[in-house]
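Risk mitigation, structural track. In case the binding assays with coenzyme A fail to produce interpretable data, a predicted complex structure has been prepared as a fallback.
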Amino acid sequence: MDLRPALAAELADILDFWQVAAENDNRPADSRAALDSLYERDPDALIVAVDGDEIVGSVIAGWDGWRCHLYRLAVAPARRRQGIGRALIEAAEERFRALGGTRADAMVLDDNADAHGAWAVGGYRRQAEWSRWIKPL
Ligand SMILES: CC(C)(COP(=O)(O)OP(=O)(O)OC[C@H]1O[C@@H](n2cnc3c(N)ncnc32)[C@H](O)[C@@H]1OP(=O)(O)O)[C@@H](O)C(=O)NCCC(=O)NCCS
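Fallback model:
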């Protein structure tokens, strides 16, 4: 298995992958335009786990020059509990460290127990003092 930045030619497959593998509740739908925009702005942010020519995992390690945000951590349902999620988180953290980031954060639904286990074992803790305030644009 290979962990590396996604290729432009893989973006359509990644959107399909997220339909079956990612957490899709309570969030804006993914779009090709949004993914193209991310890729254009920061092509190394989208990290994939690839087995042969199959995408088996993903994470977005978003760095805006100030903070380190993790999005779209997902592993193919048939490949879970094999350490791929952990490896993706570590790859994202490596990128953040190289860029000078000092703290990573992830948005995690309160009822997503699978994700709680994966983030917790990676050393992440819920920050009880904060809530996320949002406004659709
Ligand atoms: C969350 C997710 C990415 C974890 O990926 P994964 O490849 O299965 O995770 P790993 O195999 O690296 O697991 C690492 C550790 O996390 C913990 N963990 C992972 N899944 C867990 C679960 N369902 N329940 C409890 N602990 C879990 C375990 O401690 C595990 O180590 P172990 O298998 O040696 O016990 C995967 O379940 C997934 O894609 N879920 C759907 C999308 C999603 O919810 N993404 C997160 C959005 S915030």
